[in-house]
Design a protein that fits this description.
By secondary structure, the chain is an alpha/beta fold. It has 3 helices and 7 strands. The chain has a single domain, classed as 3-Layer(aba) Sandwich (Rossmann fold).
Length: about 140
């Protein structure tokens, strides 16, 4: 089975906080499909921001998540990684496009979230090209 590769492109001027909020909405939809998500953060600060955003996302619901390096007694739906951690072999790989990592092709779905920022879009184009060179047909979804 080949991976489905998606680039969600935020069209409006957006901050990293806006992108995290969108990522939380997307993660919620994915976990409602009983899929598990490996979230790749660029560094400790972005990993912490994802952790805090998932905790605060909705008061009436909770997205089960944990950090890669934190023991968890129950399988979490979402595992947060830094780019130096090996990703858990889950269903979906998700990262902000500024994260300097490419989705592992063993995942059924690879998602990059692209903020409306020239430097981020340049990295996203490089990632998109990489997947095309491997023979995949990545999809762009403007938001």
């Amino acid at each position: 089975m080949s991976a489905r590769i998606l680039f969600y492109v935020l069209q409006q001027q957006s901050s990293e906080r806006d992108a995290l909020t969108f990522a939380c909405h997307l993660i919620e939809k994915i976990t409602q499909q009983s899929l598990r998500v490996s979230v790749m953060a660029n560094d400790e600060m972005q990993c912490q921001a994802f952790d805090e955003a998932l905790w605060a996302f909705k008061a009436q619901s909770f997205i089960s998540h944990t950090r890669f390096d934190t023991p968890c007694p129950h399988p979490a739906q979402v595992i947060l990684h830094q780019k130096t951690d090996p990703p858990a072999p889950l269903d979906v790989w998700l990262a902000m496009a500024e994260t300097e990592a490419f989705g592992l092709l063993s995942f059924s779905r690879i998602i990059h979230i692209v903020r409306n920022d020239d430097a981020v879009k340049t990295k996203a184009r490089s990632q998109f090209k990489y997947y095309r060179e491997l023979g995949f047909s990545p999809e762009t979804i403007p938001l």
